[in-house]
Amino acid sequence: MAASPMSEPPYAVEALGLEKTYPGGPAALRGIDFYLRSGERVALLGPNGAGKTTLVKTIAGLLTPDAGELKLFGARPAPALRRRLGFLFEEAENLYGYLTGWENLLFYGRLAGVREHTLRRRALELLDEFDLEAAKGRPAQSLSRGQKQRLALASVLIQGARSTSSMSRPWGSICPPSATSSRVFRSFPPLWLRRMTRCSPGRSPTASW
Q1: Rounded CA gap, 116 and 130, in Å?
Q2: CATH number belonging to domain 13-200
Q3: Staple 181 to which of 15, 93, 105, 176, CB 3.0 to 4.6 Å?
Q4: First vs last C-alpha separation in the chain
Q5: What's this model's pTM, rounded to 2 decimal places?
Q6: Can you tell me the distance from the alpha carbon of 67 to that of 181, in angstroms, rounded to the nearest whole number?
Q7: Which pairing describes strands 192-196 and 42-45: parallel, antiparallel, or unpaired?
Q8: CA–CA gap between residue 77 and residue 74 (Å, rounded)
Q9: Residues whose CB falls within 8 Å of the CB of residue 140, separated by 6 or more in sequence, listed in order
Q10: Cα Rg of the chain, angstroms
């Protein structure tokens, strides 16, 4: 039976009852339900050990859940679907230190299949928006920690063809209030805030808004 033209598109990320326990450690995820639509902005808040990074790594395919179901764009995860997602983890480890700021942006844009004309225009815009003009011709390894973090954020945003971006502590080295941080934060639309909490047996898994 054909789907109704009025039916909503599937969630970009849909997690049902995810569980993950590290060997010899506590349960990092315990029955987590999580839903994210394309274009929606959600911030996961919680103390250390609440499972925020574990959830993002599970969505990225870096960890395999012990139980539960994960869907990407309405289907079981597959490499082609994960290529529609962009990820950024703490400490800006996605940057290539020997490449300049400009070269890093072009590399990730080309990797995502962004057209060259659009890529170069968008790279210049991001360097300006993130106050990184001085980093354009400098190797990433020579940048300050805050500059690296802003460049790492830009390297995710330049992959504009992707549908969803997941970030773990992306603001770690950006210290507000400042003119630079204000410009960076304006690059991201308003966020929905979701707080991750550890769940006791028998309680509803995800958490509170």
Answers
A1: 21
A2: 3.40.50.300
A3: 176
A4: 37
A5: 0.62
A6: 39
A7: parallel
A8: 9
A9: 95, 96, 97, 98, 99, 100, 101, 104, 148, 151
A10: 18
| Residue count of the chain | 209
List the structure tokens of 69.
């179901």
Q: What DSSP designation does 100 have?
A: B
In single-letter form, the type of residue at position 190 comes to P
Rounded CA separation 101/133 (Å): 9
User: Where are the chain's structural domains?
Assistant: 13-200
